Amino acid sequence: MGSFEKAKNDYKGIGVDVDVALAKLKEKPISIHCWQGDDVAGFDSGGIGGGIQATGNYPGKARNFEELKEDFKKACSLIPGKKRINLHASYSVFAEGERPNRNEIEYKHFSPWADYAREIGIGIDFNPTCFGHPMVKDNLTLSSPDEATRRFWVEHCKRSRQIANSIGEALNDKVLCNIWIPDGLKEIPADRMAPRMRLKESLDEIFDIKLANVIDCVESKVFGIGVESYTVGSNEFYLAYASGKQGVYNLLDNGHYHPTESAADKIPSLLCFFDKIPLHITRPVRWDSDHVVLFDDETRELCKEIVRNGALDKVLIGLDFFDASINRIAAWVLGTRSVQKALLYALLMPHDKLKAAQDKGDFTKMMVMMEDIKTLPFGDVWAAYCESQSVSQDGEWLDTVLEYERNVLSKRRNT
Ligand code: RNT
Ligand code: ZN
Questions:
Q1: Cα–Cα distance measured from residue 249 to residue 372, given in angstroms and rounded to the nearest whole number
Q2: Which of 10, 320, 323, 405 is catalytic?
Q3: pTM of the predicted model, to two decimals?
Q4: Closest to 88 measured CA to CA, from 32, 135, 141
Q5: Which tens digit of pLDDT belongs to each residue from 319-351?
Q6: Which of 38, 91, 180 to mutate to test the pocket of ligand 1 (most atoms within 8 A of CB)?
C-alpha cells in the first residue's frame, strides 16, 4: 500500500473521507494580497503609512506593474487550488505622463489588472487606499474634521467601489471591496464620538448606491503605530455598522484584536447573524505585525471554525501580511500554502463525531479524539494534493523560488 492509500485508510478509521476533503479544498479560493510583492509601496508613489509598517530590506522587490505581475505569477505556479489577487487602489496602472490622484482614479487604470487576472485564470478583490498619501491629515481620512480632507476620501472610496464593480463586470464575478482606514489618535482623545459620527456619515454616503458586482465590507482595528490611543473604526463601531447596514459585511483580520482574544471564536458568532464573513489571515507577533502566515495553532483554529460550521462558501479568505525581510515570493507561497494546509487539516477532522461527544457531555472522548488526530499522516494527504494539482512539494518549491531570485530578482537594481 502506498503512503497515500495508508493515510486514506487511517482517516477512514476515524470516519473521514479524504477524497471528499480534497475535492472541497481545491474549490476554495484564497485571495492573495498583491502588496506582499512590494512592501505595500504601490504604483502611485504614495507608499506605506497609516500606522502599518513593512520591516526589512530583502533585495529584489517588484518596482512596477510588469515586475509585480511576473512575481505574482511565479508564486501562483507554486500554489495549489483556486486563487484570487487582492488589489489596493494604489496599484493603479496609468499611462506615461498621466498621474491620476486618488480622487480621480477610474476603471481604465485597473483594466490591465482585469486582463491579467483573465489571462492567468484568477479572480480579483479590491481595496480603496486611504493611507500613504498627502491628503491623510493628522492620521485622519473619512473621519476628518476638515471637510476637504473627508470629501477627498469619500470620493476615493466611491470611485473604488465603482472600479470594483467594473472589474466584477469584466470578469463576470463578485469582487470584495474592503474599506480600511488608519484613522486614530496618538494621544488620549477629548472627543471619541464626533470622529465616529463623521465616519458613519462618510460610510453612508459611500454605500449610498448598491452595486451588483460588489461585496462591500469594512475592517476594524485595535491600534496602529503612531495612533496608539484611539482608533475611530473600532471593532464595535464596524460590527454595529455592518449589522445595521444591509449588504455591508464586517471583515475580521486576526491581527486586529487584543493578543489574548481569539479571532477564530468570532467566526461562529458572526455566522449567527451574517451570511458572509470576509477574513484577513495574518500572523500578529505581539502586535499587528503582519508576519507571514504559518501552519500554526491560530491559523488552524480559524480554519476549523470555517470548516466545522460548513462555512467554506461564507467565509471569504484573504491574506494580509507584508514581510520585507525574506524573499517576497517565498512569503506569498508559504503563507498561502499554510492556510491551505490548515483548511485541509480542518477538513480531515470528524466534526460530527466531535460535536456529538460535546453534546453528550463526553469531554474525555472529545479531548482524546482531538489529540489523536494530531498524529495522523496529514503530510501524506497534503503531498498527494500537491501532486494532483501539479505543484511542487514542500521541500522542493523553494528551489524554484531561489532559481527565480538568481535569474530575475537579483538583476533588479535600487530595490
Ligand atoms: C491594516 C489592515 C489592512 C491593510 C491592507 C494593506 O491594519 O489590516 O487590511 O493591511 O489593506
Ligand atoms: Zn487587514
A1: 37
A2: 320
A3: 0.98
A4: 32
A5: 999 999 999 999 999 999 999 999 999 999 999
A6: 180
